[in-house]
Write a structure and sequence with these properties.
It is a single chain. With about 260 residues, this protein is of the alpha+beta class. The protein has 2 domains: about 150 residues, no CATH class; about 90 residues, Up-down Bundle (Methane Monooxygenase Hydroxylase, Chain G, domain 1), CATH 1.20.58. About 40% of the residues lie in helices and about 20% in strands. The protein is built from 7 helices and 7 strands; from the N terminus they run E-H-H-H-H-H-H-H-E-E-E-E-E-E. Strands 1-7-6-5-4-3-2 form a 7-stranded mixed sheet. Strand 2 and strand 3 form a beta hairpin. Helix 3 packs antiparallel against helix 5, helix 5 crosses helix 6 and helix 5 packs across helix 7.
Length: about 260
Protein backbone atom coordinates (compact mmCIF):
# COMPACT_ATOMS: atom_id res chain seq x y z
CA UNK A 1 0.00 0.00 0.00
CA UNK A 2 1.30 3.50 -0.72
CA UNK A 3 2.43 5.71 2.12
CA UNK A 4 -0.14 8.39 2.84
CA UNK A 5 1.69 10.84 5.07
CA UNK A 6 5.15 12.26 4.50
CA UNK A 7 6.61 15.70 4.07
CA UNK A 8 5.46 17.50 0.98
CA UNK A 9 3.01 14.72 0.18
CA UNK A 10 0.12 15.88 -1.96
CA UNK A 11 -2.90 13.59 -2.29
CA UNK A 12 -5.11 14.26 -5.30
CA UNK A 13 -8.02 12.66 -7.04
CA UNK A 14 -7.25 11.56 -10.58
CA UNK A 15 -9.54 14.27 -12.00
CA UNK A 16 -7.75 16.99 -10.03
CA UNK A 17 -4.35 15.71 -11.10
CA UNK A 18 -5.40 15.76 -14.77
CA UNK A 19 -6.55 19.38 -14.45
CA UNK A 20 -3.24 20.37 -12.84
CA UNK A 21 -1.22 18.57 -15.50
CA UNK A 22 -3.19 20.28 -18.29
CA UNK A 23 -2.62 23.73 -16.75
CA UNK A 24 1.09 23.06 -16.25
CA UNK A 25 1.42 21.76 -19.83
CA UNK A 26 -0.37 24.80 -21.27
CA UNK A 27 1.70 27.29 -19.25
CA UNK A 28 4.95 25.54 -20.12
CA UNK A 29 4.15 25.83 -23.83
CA UNK A 30 3.24 29.50 -23.51
CA UNK A 31 6.36 30.30 -21.47
CA UNK A 32 8.80 28.32 -23.57
CA UNK A 33 7.53 29.76 -26.84
CA UNK A 34 8.05 33.37 -25.69
CA UNK A 35 11.05 35.10 -27.31
CA UNK A 36 12.46 31.84 -28.72
CA UNK A 37 13.51 31.30 -32.28
CA UNK A 38 11.53 28.67 -34.15
CA UNK A 39 13.96 28.24 -37.03
CA UNK A 40 17.34 29.46 -38.25
CA UNK A 41 16.10 31.70 -41.04
CA UNK A 42 18.06 34.63 -39.59
CA UNK A 43 21.03 32.69 -38.23
CA UNK A 44 23.18 34.06 -41.04
CA UNK A 45 22.64 37.70 -40.07
CA UNK A 46 22.44 37.82 -36.27
CA UNK A 47 24.14 36.16 -33.36
CA UNK A 48 21.97 33.95 -31.16
CA UNK A 49 21.63 34.51 -27.43
CA UNK A 50 20.76 32.36 -24.42
CA UNK A 51 17.23 33.77 -24.56
CA UNK A 52 16.78 32.51 -28.12
CA UNK A 53 17.40 28.94 -27.00
CA UNK A 54 15.97 29.04 -23.46
CA UNK A 55 13.75 26.05 -22.74
CA UNK A 56 14.71 24.18 -25.89
CA UNK A 57 15.85 20.58 -25.65
CA UNK A 58 19.19 19.26 -26.77
CA UNK A 59 17.54 17.68 -29.81
CA UNK A 60 15.79 20.91 -30.79
CA UNK A 61 19.02 22.89 -30.60
CA UNK A 62 20.90 20.25 -32.58
CA UNK A 63 18.23 20.45 -35.26
CA UNK A 64 18.53 24.25 -35.42
CA UNK A 65 22.31 23.98 -35.65
CA UNK A 66 22.09 21.57 -38.55
CA UNK A 67 19.50 23.79 -40.21
CA UNK A 68 22.27 26.35 -40.72
CA UNK A 69 24.07 23.81 -42.88
CA UNK A 70 20.87 22.64 -44.55
CA UNK A 71 20.07 26.18 -45.70
CA UNK A 72 23.39 26.08 -47.54
CA UNK A 73 22.40 22.84 -49.28
CA UNK A 74 24.45 20.49 -47.12
CA UNK A 75 23.73 16.80 -47.76
CA UNK A 76 23.66 14.87 -44.48
CA UNK A 77 25.02 11.39 -43.84
CA UNK A 78 22.57 11.22 -40.95
CA UNK A 79 19.44 9.82 -42.60
CA UNK A 80 17.10 11.32 -40.01
CA UNK A 81 18.36 14.85 -40.66
CA UNK A 82 18.37 14.32 -44.41
CA UNK A 83 14.77 13.08 -44.43
CA UNK A 84 13.66 15.98 -42.26
CA UNK A 85 15.29 18.71 -44.32
CA UNK A 86 14.20 17.22 -47.64
CA UNK A 87 10.64 17.85 -46.47
CA UNK A 88 11.32 21.57 -46.04
CA UNK A 89 10.23 23.69 -48.99
CA UNK A 90 13.38 25.82 -48.85
CA UNK A 91 15.87 22.92 -48.93
CA UNK A 92 17.90 22.53 -52.12
CA UNK A 93 20.79 20.08 -51.98
CA UNK A 94 24.17 21.35 -53.11
CA UNK A 95 26.14 19.64 -55.85
CA UNK A 96 28.81 18.87 -53.28
CA UNK A 97 29.33 19.54 -49.59
CA UNK A 98 32.69 21.02 -50.55
CA UNK A 99 30.93 24.14 -51.84
CA UNK A 100 29.08 24.69 -48.54
CA UNK A 101 30.64 27.64 -46.71
CA UNK A 102 29.44 29.35 -43.56
CA UNK A 103 29.72 33.04 -42.80
CA UNK A 104 31.44 34.29 -39.66
CA UNK A 105 28.05 34.84 -38.00
CA UNK A 106 26.86 31.35 -38.90
CA UNK A 107 30.08 29.79 -37.64
CA UNK A 108 29.74 31.62 -34.32
CA UNK A 109 26.12 30.47 -34.00
CA UNK A 110 27.12 26.87 -34.71
CA UNK A 111 29.79 26.97 -32.00
CA UNK A 112 27.44 28.68 -29.56
CA UNK A 113 24.77 26.02 -30.06
CA UNK A 114 27.35 23.27 -29.67
CA UNK A 115 28.27 24.70 -26.28
CA UNK A 116 24.63 24.73 -25.18
CA UNK A 117 24.17 21.16 -26.40
CA UNK A 118 27.25 20.05 -24.45
CA UNK A 119 25.89 21.71 -21.30
CA UNK A 120 22.52 19.97 -21.69
CA UNK A 121 24.23 16.63 -22.33
CA UNK A 122 26.29 17.03 -19.16
CA UNK A 123 23.09 17.72 -17.23
CA UNK A 124 21.50 14.53 -18.58
CA UNK A 125 24.58 12.48 -17.84
CA UNK A 126 24.75 13.86 -14.29
CA UNK A 127 21.09 13.01 -13.69
CA UNK A 128 21.44 9.39 -14.81
CA UNK A 129 24.69 9.08 -12.87
CA UNK A 130 23.00 10.29 -9.68
CA UNK A 131 19.98 8.02 -10.14
CA UNK A 132 22.29 5.02 -10.51
CA UNK A 133 24.24 6.19 -7.47
CA UNK A 134 21.04 6.57 -5.43
CA UNK A 135 19.86 3.12 -6.49
CA UNK A 136 23.18 1.61 -5.40
CA UNK A 137 23.08 3.49 -2.10
CA UNK A 138 19.55 2.29 -1.33
CA UNK A 139 20.54 -1.31 -2.00
CA UNK A 140 23.69 -1.00 0.11
CA UNK A 141 21.99 1.03 2.88
CA UNK A 142 24.60 3.74 2.36
CA UNK A 143 22.91 6.35 4.53
CA UNK A 144 25.48 9.06 3.82
CA UNK A 145 24.78 8.94 0.09
CA UNK A 146 21.04 8.49 0.62
CA UNK A 147 20.94 11.59 2.82
CA UNK A 148 22.78 13.53 0.16
CA UNK A 149 19.82 13.09 -2.15
CA UNK A 150 16.88 12.62 0.22
CA UNK A 151 17.74 14.80 3.22
CA UNK A 152 14.60 16.91 2.86
CA UNK A 153 12.44 13.83 3.31
CA UNK A 154 14.49 12.73 6.33
CA UNK A 155 13.41 15.79 8.32
CA UNK A 156 10.19 13.96 9.18
CA UNK A 157 9.16 10.73 10.91
CA UNK A 158 11.77 7.99 10.52
CA UNK A 159 9.25 5.19 9.94
CA UNK A 160 7.68 7.06 7.05
CA UNK A 161 11.10 7.99 5.73
CA UNK A 162 12.30 4.39 5.83
CA UNK A 163 9.17 2.96 4.21
CA UNK A 164 9.26 5.56 1.46
CA UNK A 165 12.91 4.83 0.71
CA UNK A 166 12.25 1.08 0.64
CA UNK A 167 9.48 1.57 -1.92
CA UNK A 168 11.76 3.80 -3.99
CA UNK A 169 14.48 1.14 -3.80
CA UNK A 170 12.11 -1.51 -5.16
CA UNK A 171 11.00 0.77 -7.99
CA UNK A 172 14.55 1.67 -9.04
CA UNK A 173 15.55 -2.00 -9.01
CA UNK A 174 12.85 -2.68 -11.60
CA UNK A 175 14.01 0.13 -13.90
CA UNK A 176 17.01 -0.24 -16.18
CA UNK A 177 18.36 3.25 -15.75
CA UNK A 178 21.20 2.64 -18.19
CA UNK A 179 18.64 1.85 -20.90
CA UNK A 180 16.67 5.11 -20.74
CA UNK A 181 16.37 6.73 -24.17
CA UNK A 182 15.64 10.33 -25.17
CA UNK A 183 13.32 11.50 -27.92
CA UNK A 184 12.47 15.15 -28.64
CA UNK A 185 13.59 16.33 -25.24
CA UNK A 186 11.90 13.61 -23.21
CA UNK A 187 13.17 10.36 -21.71
CA UNK A 188 11.09 7.39 -20.64
CA UNK A 189 11.39 3.86 -19.33
CA UNK A 190 8.55 1.78 -17.95
CA UNK A 191 7.78 -1.71 -16.75
CA UNK A 192 4.19 -2.91 -16.65
CA UNK A 193 2.67 -6.15 -15.38
CA UNK A 194 -0.79 -7.45 -16.27
CA UNK A 195 -1.69 -10.30 -13.89
CA UNK A 196 -5.15 -10.90 -15.31
CA UNK A 197 -6.82 -8.65 -12.76
CA UNK A 198 -5.05 -5.30 -12.83
CA UNK A 199 -2.14 -3.58 -14.54
CA UNK A 200 0.63 -2.37 -12.27
CA UNK A 201 4.11 -1.14 -12.88
CA UNK A 202 6.87 1.40 -12.48
CA UNK A 203 8.23 4.12 -14.72
CA UNK A 204 10.63 7.01 -14.97
CA UNK A 205 9.78 10.03 -17.09
CA UNK A 206 12.04 13.02 -17.68
CA UNK A 207 10.93 16.26 -19.31
CA UNK A 208 12.60 19.62 -18.96
CA UNK A 209 14.26 19.68 -15.56
CA UNK A 210 11.73 17.38 -13.89
CA UNK A 211 12.30 13.69 -13.20
CA UNK A 212 9.22 11.71 -12.20
CA UNK A 213 9.61 8.18 -10.82
CA UNK A 214 6.33 6.38 -10.25
CA UNK A 215 4.65 3.11 -9.44
CA UNK A 216 1.07 2.00 -8.88
CA UNK A 217 -1.97 -0.01 -9.90
CA UNK A 218 -3.09 1.80 -13.03
CA UNK A 219 -5.97 -0.02 -14.62
CA UNK A 220 -7.88 -3.26 -15.11
CA UNK A 221 -6.40 -6.18 -17.01
CA UNK A 222 -6.61 -6.15 -20.79
CA UNK A 223 -8.49 -9.47 -20.70
CA UNK A 224 -11.50 -7.92 -18.94
CA UNK A 225 -12.96 -6.53 -22.13
CA UNK A 226 -16.43 -4.98 -21.89
CA UNK A 227 -17.70 -4.15 -18.40
CA UNK A 228 -21.33 -3.85 -19.51
CA UNK A 229 -22.21 -7.44 -18.62
CA UNK A 230 -21.76 -6.66 -14.92
CA UNK A 231 -19.66 -9.78 -14.40
CA UNK A 232 -16.32 -8.13 -13.52
CA UNK A 233 -15.54 -7.49 -9.85
CA UNK A 234 -12.78 -4.99 -10.69
CA UNK A 235 -13.10 -1.73 -8.74
CA UNK A 236 -11.42 1.35 -10.18
CA UNK A 237 -11.48 2.90 -6.70
CA UNK A 238 -8.53 0.66 -5.93
CA UNK A 239 -6.34 2.36 -8.51
CA UNK A 240 -3.47 4.42 -7.11
CA UNK A 241 -0.11 5.86 -8.07
CA UNK A 242 2.78 7.31 -6.13
CA UNK A 243 5.45 9.64 -7.44
CA UNK A 244 8.95 10.64 -6.40
CA UNK A 245 9.72 13.99 -8.01
CA UNK A 246 13.29 15.20 -8.55
CA UNK A 247 14.67 18.29 -10.23
CA UNK A 248 17.59 18.00 -12.63
CA UNK A 249 20.40 20.54 -12.57
CA UNK A 250 23.91 20.84 -13.91
CA UNK A 251 25.25 19.37 -10.66
CA UNK A 252 22.87 16.40 -10.65
CA UNK A 253 19.50 15.63 -9.13
CA UNK A 254 17.70 17.00 -6.09
CA UNK A 255 14.67 15.48 -4.37
CA UNK A 256 11.61 17.72 -4.58
CA UNK A 257 8.49 15.95 -3.36
CA UNK A 258 6.60 12.71 -2.88
CA UNK A 259 3.02 12.55 -4.15
CA UNK A 260 0.14 10.08 -4.02
CA UNK A 261 -2.84 9.89 -6.35
CA UNK A 262 -5.83 7.69 -5.59
Amino acid sequence: MPIKFVAKVKIYTLATMKRYLFIIFFLSIAFNSYSQIINCFECDVRLLTEADLAGKSLEEIALLRNEIFARKGYVFNNERYQRYFERQSWYKSASSNNVVELSSTETQNVEFMKSIEARLQRKRDAAIRDLILLKKALNNKDNVTIDRFMSELKEHQWVTYGDCLEELRMVLNNLLLEDIHWNKGRAYYSRKIDNGYNISGESIYIQGNTITISRGDYSHSEIFGDFDDGYSDYMSEGEWSEFWIFTMGEDGIKFDSYQVVG
